[in-house]
Structures are given as C-alpha cells and as structure tokens.
Amino acid sequence: MALPLVFFALFFAYPVVEIVGRGVKDGGQWQLGRFGAVLSDPDILHVLWFTLWQAAASTVLTLVVALPGAYVFARFDFPGKQLLRAAVAVPFVLPTVVVGAAFLALVGRGGLLDELWGVRLDTSVWAILLAHVFFNYAVVVRTVGGLWAQLDPRQEEAARVLGAGRFAAWRKVTLPALGPAVAAAALMVFLFTFTSFGVVQILGGPTFSTLEVEIYRQTADFLDLPTAAVLTVIQFAAVLGLLALHAWTVRRRESTLRLVDASLTTRRPHGPGQWALLWGTLAVIAVLLVLPLAVLVERSFAGPDGYGLAFYETLRSAASADSTFAVAPLDALWNSLAYGAAATAIALLVGGLAAAALTRSRPEPGTSGRTPAITRLLRGFDGLLMLPLGVSAVTVGFGFLISLDKPPLDLRSSWWLVPLAQALVGVPFVVRTMLPVLRSVDSRLREAAAVLGASPWQVWREVDLPMVRRALLIAAGFAFAVSLGEFGATVFIARPDQPTLPVAVTRLLSRAGEFNYGQAMALSTILMVVCAAALLALERLPIDHSGEF
Amino acid sequence: MSTTSRITAAALAAAAGMTALAGCGSSGTSGSADAKTVTLVSHDSFNASKSVLAAFEKESGYKVKMIKGGDAGEAVNKAILSKDNPQGDVFFGIDNALLSRGLNAGLFTPYKAQGLDSVPADLQLDKDAHRVTPLDYGDICVNYDRAYFTEHKLTPPQSFDDLLKPQYKGLLVTENSATSSPGLAFQLGTIASHGEAGWSDYWKKLKANGVEVVNSWEQAYNERFSGSAAGKGKGDKPLVVSYASSPPAEVMGKTPAPKEAPTGVATGTCFRQIEFGGLLKGAKNEKGGKALLDFLLSKKFQEDMPLQMFVNPARKDAKVPELFTRYGATIDKPATLAPETINKNRDQWIKQWSSLVLK
C-alpha cells in the first residue's frame, strides 16, 4: 500500500498540484473568480458539451461493436485466434498521427470509400467515432473477454436446467458476473475518449475541440496557465464524478464468482447462430481494424517505382547517415522496447500492490471488517489510481518540469522520466484488469489458508496468484502496449535524445517529401509487427495447470 | 509459477533501479553541472550532422547534450516555466513570433556571439542588447502543384491578393492558426500585407473564395495537397500553405534529379520566420554555453543547417547547397512584423481569426 501511494504522490499528485497551483494562485492568493470567468465563456461551454457527448457516443458505439467480439474471443475456439487477439490490440500502440493517416486514406478525399462510393467522412464526427472504436476495441475485448473466458459456463447451464430461458439465464447469471468488467471497460473507453487529443486534432477538423485539446492549446500555445488550470480542474471534477458513479455501480454488483481455467470454457462454435456470430465478428474486425492497418502496410511498400522495399532500404541506409535526424530503426525499436519493459515492470509492481491492498480492504462477509472511514479512504485511493487517465498529458508533462527539478529528484533529463510517465498510464490498466478477478476470489479460501498457518505472503502466493495469473498477463500486455505506443507523455516531457518509434514516425511525418512519408509508414509497420509479436509472446507464456484447476 | 516469479523479479529489479536512481540524483551530478558537458535545449526539429557536432566536441573539449522539448512553441514555454532553474545552457529555436515573450520573461544572458558581423542587419532583431543571436530563417508561403496549373492552363497565384481571384476559387488549403505554426505565420503574413485594420476583411474575402482550413500541416500537406508525393497525388487542393523549402524537400532522394521541383512557391505570399538562440540565464556552464553559441553561428554549422533542418543559414557568407539554389525560391520581400507587435496582439488575433474563419 505504501509504495503505490508514494509513487502516485511523487510522480502524479505533486507535479499536477504544482502546475495547477501556478495557474490558480497569484502571489499566494487563490484566484477562484477565474472559474466563473472561464465557465461563462460560451466557447468553453461548447467545448465541454462536445467533449461529453462524443465520449458518451464513442463509448456506447465501442461497447456495441466490441462486446460480441469479447464473447467470441472468450468462448470460441478457432484457428488463428491468438494471432487475431494480438492483432486487435495493435491499434492501441499506434501513434495517432499514423492512425490519422490510415483513416484519411480510407475515409478522406481520394480515399477508398471516396473512390468506391464517393463517401467522405473526414472532418466529420463520424471519423472521430470510428477512430475511437478502432483504438478501444481491444480494451473491451481484453478486459471483458479475459473474465468471460474464466466464468464457469455450468452456472448458466444450471439455471437453464432449472427452467430459465436462454436469455433469462444469461441476464440473471452471466450479466451480473460480467457487470464489473463491462463497467470497467466502459469507464476506460469513456476516459480515453473524453480526453481524446490526437484523433480529434487530426480527423475532426478545426471546428471540433475537446477539453484536452483546449488544455493543450492554453498551455503549450498561449502559456495561459490560469485558463489551463481551470480547465484541468474541470476535467478533474468530471473524471472524479465518473469514477464515483463507477464505484457505485460496481459495489452493487460485485459477487464472488466461480472461475475456471479459460481453456475449459472454449469450444468450436456449433449451430448456425454461433457461426454467424463468429463470422460477423471477424467481418467487423476485418473492416474496422485490419483494413486501416493494411492501408499503412500497403503505403510502406508503395515505393516510387512501384511496390518494393525501397522505403525500408532507405531506412537502413539512413541508419548510417550523418545526421541526428536519421534514426536507425533498430535504435528506435530498442529505445521503445527498453522504455516499455521498464514501464511495464513499474506498472505491474505499483498496480499489483495497489490491487492486492484494495482487495484486502473489503470488509469480509460475516466479520466486522474495517472501520467505515478506512474503507472510504481506500475507495478514494481506488479512484485516485484512475486519475492519470483523466488528466491531460501536457499538464503532467509541464508539472514534471517545474516540480521534479531539484536533487535528489531532478528527473527532467533522466532516462527514467519516460518509463515513469508511461507507467502512470499503465497502472490503471493493471489495477482495473486485476481487481475484478482478485475480488471474485472467494475470501474463505484465504481464511482457510490463514487458519492453516499461512503467512499473508503465502496466502497471496498460493491462493490469489494462481487465480490472477491470467489477469496479470493481460495487464502486463496492456501496460507494455501502452508504453510502446505512448506518445503524449513521451513528447511532452523533456527527454534525452533517445527517440522511440512513435516519436521517430512523427518526426518523419512532419517533413515534406516522398521518402520521409514512406519511411514513416515503414517504421509504423515495424512498430505494428513488434507490438503484435510482443503480445503474442505474452499470450504464449506457459501457464502451468497444476494449481486448483 | 515460473512466469509470475519472473515478472516479480523484473518488478523488483525495477524498484531497485528506482532506488539507485534516487541515490545517484542526490550526489548532484546532473549533466550540465559538469564543466565538461554543455547542454543544448531545443525543439523537436533541431538536427545537425553527427560529424559536425563531433568536430565541435573535439575542438572545444565539451560534450554536447541535447534536450528536445516538443514543438517550437512548447519548447519556448517550457524554457519560460523553468527559467529559475534552466534545463541547460543554450536555447536554440525561439522565433520572431515568440521572441518578445521570451525576452520579457528574462530568459537570456546577453552575449555577442562570434561571427555576428556576417549576419544581415534585417535578421538582427535584438541588435543592441545581444540577448539572442539570429541563427537561421525560413519563409512560410503558399506552395503550388505545377502539374495542376499546367494541365489547367492557369498561371499560379503570386500574391496575397491573387488568392482572392475567382480563378483560384476553392483551390487553397491552409492550417488552423490556433493549432499550427505555419497556419499562424500565414495569418501574420496577411496582417503584415493588409494591415491591422484590413486583414479581417481580407480573410472574409478569402473565405468567400473557398479557402479550406485543417488542423495540422501534416494533414494539409500530406493528405490534401495534390502536389505532395506523399499523398500520391490524391489530394484535391493544388495550393497549400507550407514552407519555401518544401520544393527542395520534394526532390530529395529522387534519382535521377528532375529538371525542376514538382511544386513551386508563390513568392509574394511569404512570411519570414527568424530563429534565434541564446545563452540561458542561470546556465550552469556559461563558458561552454558561449562556446556552443559561437559554434552555432560558425560557418561549419551554418552550412550544415539547410539539409538538416530545411532552413536558410543566417550568415550571408555561408554556402547554401545546390538542392536549395536549384529547386528552392529566393524571397526578396517577405512579409514581416515587429516581435513586440506580434506579442501584444497574438492571442487576440488568433481568437478573432477563429471566430471569423471557422464559424
């Protein structure tokens, strides 16, 4: 418990409070009047409204599209499943500039849809919503699907034997069990889309702006810290409200679940309905996720003299070029992997400890439990861990700059700054993925172990760990994917000159010329392949079956 | 158990690393405190040949450390925020649009760099105080797609007023002044040419003539502009706001070298951006910083710049590469505005522009 608290206090709360404090304080005096001024600006209200409704729409759309996918991945066995599950997570790691380019190639002028049917969606809200589904599909599939795969189907079958219809059985048995995971996934999608930056900037056209975009503009363009601070506080309040709502729904729904090994619940689909579901899901994935990625790959091979490896070859020769602009792809790849591994390790340590502490904090049924005050405090901490997802990267970045600038914590040009910032975004994933599973572990198992003389550490190792191993892997995969593709924090904080792949791609895209563009596409393709390979490797890690299952 | 114990081990190793890091921080040897290292703070576009940097390191005995802090505006704002405890010794890349903000914040220690005599007077915007040194310049201009204008037997526009003519209706794409620095520079260009009283009228007419606005240069140039090779000619706008150095960039890497660049520059629509460097106030290695500033203005570095950053050297005696002289445009009368004027009005101009053009 202490470590996660210190981590968050030092690398999140302190920098954010410092930068916001600079904005709302003037010579030691709080300037609360600024809130009124900013909140009565019709432009700001317009931004707020747009931020809210596009996030709500994106979340609903993502759930509608991805929940069937979560079911398919959880329950069906089909060839290429692992590869596909890794592939749907790829969008997650791609920098938004790249995704923007891919989407524009599909739905923009002269794009595929334009050539086929004359449909152009760029600079419309549809492009934003579709891109949000593209980015967040994996969030739903992985958080919900991870738990779904471990739900014992026999419970639902038992209900049906007892006379419940198929839908009633699902509604009464499976839905309540999935509830927390669905709520967690929805919350994460909402937070991501609520704080959407790149997608709105690139695809939305200049008339659309989210709170996050506005905070960025006020901070990075105008250096208007007071306005930025007020907006940050508003975003903060919105996120807190959301988290409270989420905590409330989860508390009403949580139940102890019977979890089984995922391999026992999957089978080949049977019957036309299930086949249709499988093919439908595959079709959605093909159109919505694979097609934009394929466009990138196609562009990376479309050299000046027809298809070939021209761009990849210039990338290789650029490696030896006499310029600090030319980044050897291998160097950038290595930087990305090293940052990602460090960030994942930090996120797992901090997030894992936090999740374990939060599970312990629940009053056990039949016992008096902890005092309500402590329980409330811990619930607050639960929410706190989600906050980094809801706070603008530019706020955190500028906060780092002015707060972590003195020894012993002058991290501003330290290598560790990047993985620390990336871990901030990774921790919420770890906590969110592990909590539902940890909480569903029957506490009587723990008690029994304790009664039999096991130390707390042994209880965790022998009881909890075997159950959460899968969730832990999923969490690690997320944290790693987030760090590989993480761009916000990496560009906003001052860094030593070690560009990651996304940073290198963005640099190339910001220059004219066919070769710069082609190299950006080639590097993006490499990023995609590496990410898919890393996720696939994680899925393949041996899970030993000697435990309870 | 093997998997998870490995993960735990990795996590513990990371924790150990963090502790070690806190330890080495307290011994107080962060880069620039070291007299042998000089730290350059800049924006993401800064580039130099490795060999040129290495030559400086060898001659001076200093090791150069680079910190890049986002795009140009962001980097300046970061420097302002951390001015009491600067991140490095020298800042590179504050331009005329932001110069006053940096000078008013007291970012720099005056130093007259060697070689300043070779810099034309019109680039020396701080010539009495020497707080900053002009290092390079570039022009933001409307670029045109040669193929489109040949095909349609149309002469490309040359001036701001040309852009209002009916034959160019719906052909221009530009960037959002509020989110893109070329977009803002183009707006400043129109203000310089049509005056503080007349520019909003000009934009009303430009809007009526079908100007399109997108958020970023990447989108305008790579996706919308029909002349960019990146878009494979699928863009439908033959006019775009970009840089005077974009045509040479289009030719780069092409074999055999074409007779002329596929794109051209409307020379009467240019706004000049001048980039400056300066010694940061509170620099830990002031001596090294001065040496670095001299180096940035040295002929060697100045001649390296064009192909690294696609800008023109500030020194008039620096040789410009053939790629630039052959395919680039020389802008004789760029539009300019005094830094103080920009600083005073910038935010309000952007606001006014947004409500005028975007709504």
Keywords:
heterodimer; A: 549 residues; mainly alpha; two-stranded antiparallel ribbon; 25 helices; 4 strands; B: 359 residues; alpha/beta; 11-stranded mixed beta sheet; 41% helix
The helix-strand sequence of chain B is HEHEHEHEEHEHEHEHEEHHEHH
Q: What overall geometry of chain B do the principal axes of the alpha carbons give?
A: globular
Query: What spatial form of chain A do the alpha-carbon principal axes imply?
Result: globular
The average pLDDT value of chain B, as a whole number, equals 88
Task: State Rg of chain A.
Answer: 24 Å
Structural class of chain A: mainly alpha
Radius of gyration of chain B: 23 Å
What does this 3D model show about the protein?
The complex is a heterodimer of chains A (549) and B (359). Chain A is an all-alpha fold and 549 residues long. Chain A has helices at residues 2-24, 33-39, 42-75, 81-88, 96-107, 112-117, 125-148, 153-161, 166-194, 198-203, 211-221, 225-253, 262-265, 271-301, 310-320, 329-360, 372-384, 387-390, 393-403, 417-440, 443-451, 456-485, 488-492, 501-509, 514-540; strands spanning 25-26, 29-30, 302-303, 306-307. In chain A, 74% of the residues lie in helices and 1% in strands. In chain A, strands 1-2 form a two-stranded antiparallel sheet. In chain A, α1 crosses α19 (393-403), α3 crosses α14 (271-301) and α16 (329-360) packs across α20. The relative contact order of chain A is 0.14. With 359 residues, chain B is of the alpha/beta class. In chain B, α2 links the parallel β1 (37-42) and β2. In chain B, α6 crosses α12 (339-358). Residues 1-33 of chain B have low confidence and may be disordered.
